[in-house]
Amino acid sequence: MFDWNLLQVVLWLIAGMVSFYFSIGNARVWTSITVGFFLILIAEVIPAAMPLLPGMEYPQVQALGYIFGTIAIMAITHGFQEYYLFSRTLELEGEKLTVYLSVLAVIIASMIFIAINPVPDAATLRTISIVENSCWVFLALINIDMIRKIHQAISDSPISRGFIAFIAVFAAIFLWKGSELYIQVYHLDDLADLYPLRYSFSQSVHSVGNYLTSIGVGGTFLYLARLLR
Q1: In the chain, is it the N or the C terminus that has fewer CB atoms within a 10 Å radius of its CB?
Q2: What digits encode the pLDDT tens for the residues 161-197?
Q3: Per residue in 60-93, is it b (16+ CB within 10 Å) or e — as a string?
Q4: Kind plus residue range of the DSSP H or E element containing 133
């Protein structure tokens, strides 16, 4: 039987590597965006697809995965806000190292926060996951509008077409995270016997959105790399 979880890991591994490599080889303005997309691989995809990894049985590790996912979308959103300002003013402050250290500091602070608090139970983990998915859903919509404005501001530039691809990526993210949030809010995972079609459809949208996002992220950065050569 074909292992769809393995395919998920492979697609996100490619997307994560491409985005991180793109960050190293291009201007500072891309750093927060690419680091955020790279964090998706570490924070969510590998733990979800490979639950037997050492340490995954600990609730603290699961909680950190959700928190790192929130950090990822926050970094991506901050990056697109920076790019929008750059597209309007052509001014940018800071260095790449500052971005890397800032994200690392937030990760370390999150680890300390989890370590000094009670061990999260199932209800707490669900709440943290709902917060994460809520951030993804609403910030995906904000990023779509932000990217639209960036595209308008740089419409004369060849790379403007790459931002159209980013809009498609965030549409896929909205489906991916939105369907998961829907399942959580309505407890469809506990009511699958009562609403089998609704639960099955939501799960399908979640899976398709995940695959489309990973393909879109990797493809968009490869396309941008080609445009920037």
Answers
A1: N
A2: 889 999 999 999 999 999 999 999 999 999 999 999 9
A3: eebbbbbbbbbbbbbbbbbbbebbbebbeeeeee
A4: helix 122-153
CA distance to 24, 94, 134, per residue, from 47 (Å): 25, 33, 20
CA separation for the pair 102, 106 (Å, rounded): 6
Token pair 């809010």: residue: 185
Comparing CA positions, the residue from 227, 152, 216 lying closest to residue 19 is 216
CB atoms within 10 A of CB 215: 16
What are the φ/ψ torsions at residue 58 (nearest 5 degrees)? -85, 130
Tokens of 117: 């608090």
pLDDT digits (tens, 9 = 90+) for 57-76: 788 888 998 999 999 999 99
CA quadruple 64, 141, 223, 215: dihedral, nearest 10: 60
Phi, psi of 175 (to 5 degrees): -65, -45
Phi, psi angles (nearest 5°) of residue 57: -80, -10
Of 13, 144, 153, 34, give the one whose Cα is nearest residue 100.
34
Q: How far is CA 216 from CA 113, 193, 209, 212, in A?
A: 33, 34, 10, 6
The secondary structure of residue 228, as a DSSP letter, is T
How much is the pTM?
0.91
